[in-house]
Amino acid sequence: MIPEIGQFAMILALLLAVAQSFFGIAGPWRGNARWIQAVYPAVAGQFVMLGLAFGCLVWSLVHNDFTVKLVAGHSNTALPVYFRVAAAWGNHEGSLLFWVFVLSVWTVTVAAFANSLPRPFVARVLGVLGIISVGFLLFSLATSNPFERLPPGMPDGVDLNPVLQDFGLTIHPPMLYVGYVGFSVAFAFACAAMIEGKLDQTWARWTRPWTTVAWMFLTVGIALGAWWAYYELGWGGYWAWDPVENSILMPWLLGTALIHSLSVTDKRGLFKSWTLLLAIMTFSFCLLATFMVRSGVLVSVHSFAADPTRGIFILTFLALTIGGALTLYLWRAPLLRSEAGFDVVSRESFILFNNILLVIATAVVFGGTMAPIFVDLAGLGTMSVGPPYFNVMFLLPIFPLLALVSAGTFARWKRGNLGESRKRILSTLTLATVLGLAVMLGFYGDRSLLGPLGVILGLWIIASALVDPIDRWRRGLSVSPAVLGMTALLPST
Description:
493 residues; mainly alpha; 2 domains
């Protein structure tokens, strides 16, 4: 009975997502206040229904309902309760339901905390998020039903994959999902702004907090995954350039570029076209990651499924969603001109150069990950791309990026003169060099070039980011919260 309730709740959630999409897009277009208002109950209802559905799945796992195919295949009576709960997202069907549930959490949060924004704009944002929900709910119900029944008679389940029976399963996937699903909000804000035709600084200011939170969760999720892989898989390191690892790294790289491009659009009204494109690209690569994990096109310890039908569904949805967004982008291109300018040596320039390098790094990872697939599809045989390629090619844009981050910390908006900050640049670089060499030679004995260079550049970023808060503290001034957050990565504020 409980599984049937869960499946019925998913069907109701799909209907509510359709209503959310329609009223969110059509209401502002027709100027119908009642339709705009109708979006909010649809959002709340979808959240409740998906929460109910996911709760039913967890209940089935905890209570060992082996008449449910998912439970029988990923649990058993001897499995600890907390692993039974985690098993809800430790497989393809359950993780997909969790994916769309997380999306509903983001959606209801936007509806609740964006009430200071114009109602028509928020309705459009919720409408776009509704379209994404419709796509994934259709995918789940049509190809990946988590409540599919088995004939009675199985006394016990197959058990959860032993590799997944680890504390990492309880925290790594949820953090990861909250992160890259959260980029759908930035995508929705960008689409809403393009539909509305108001592409000034305002939409970027509204989008920044949501994007930053999503990026933070994705960062934590990737870090936890690297830690888990280090001690569980025996790779001998935290990162092995596994294809599915790469699929999550690419949205992170683009998301990093996006949050800093948003800062320039917000503060200076520049990079509007670039920022919109990054919002589309970041979410595109989130969908691409979903496709890679669930289509079977990549062989990885992280892959959930190997069903071509599922892959075609996701690929079609990706093409329709991103194709529609790019069409909007081309339609609104004439509105994206920026009047303000900036010098070559300015904070805007450093952020732009850094963003370009991040996009290049993404292209390097994408090329190395997808090349074997393209070669196979072209009938040219087989090829393997492994760490030797990534360890060299990825570092080519990353090392200059790290150097620009450190120097750019001292640049000013609009007009800059690094000569004024030469002393600070050289002093922080010297300090980082001494500490980096001491750490690598004293504690690790690393005699390679790349290890010390990476540590030195990382320490240089930290030292550069700390200069401003230390200086403000010495002068008795307040320390900006932004300094405690994003300035340790790129000079965004």
